[in-house]
Amino acid sequence: xxQKKIGEFMKELRREKxxxxxxxxxxxxxxxxxxxxxETGSNLPxxxxxxxxxxxxxxxxxxxLDGERRSEKMNEELKETVLKVADxxxxxxxxxxxxxxxxxxxxxxxxxxFMILEYTDLVGLGITKNIADFCLGLAxxxxxxxxxxxSKYISKxxxxxxxxxxxx
Length: 168
Description:
Shape: rod-shaped
Oligomer: single chain
Number of domains: 2
Number of strands: 0
Radius of gyration: 35 Å
Structural class: mainly alpha
Helix content: over 70%
Distance between the termini: 62 Å
Strand content: under 5%
């Protein structure tokens, strides 16, 4: 327990009530010098007086002993905000992973088609050479996209994409 902090808090509470040390001393049946010692942090009141002070100032006993206010409403609002941010981040991550999953499968299928065409010697038959080259390029492109999506640069890429699309 930090006596100085508790004393400062008690002084703040007394000033909020707009009363003097003498008036508080009278209410608590102690001397004004005793109140002064509480507020400077030299001494702490007895537990029975601490309970009376908490009731009088309309604060929790825990707040008085910690030397600071605790706002439940503020804590709840902060908790709700953090949960919203976490949900939003989780939703964005799920969308990103779905895209990555689709790109990966496109790359795998394209590479399999390339390998089939390459190893069955169908590549030399004109149009199948173009199909094999396209599939290899597509597989390589999906690999680059997957690397981009798993890197730290995806947010920069997304921002750039949004700016380009908005400018058109």
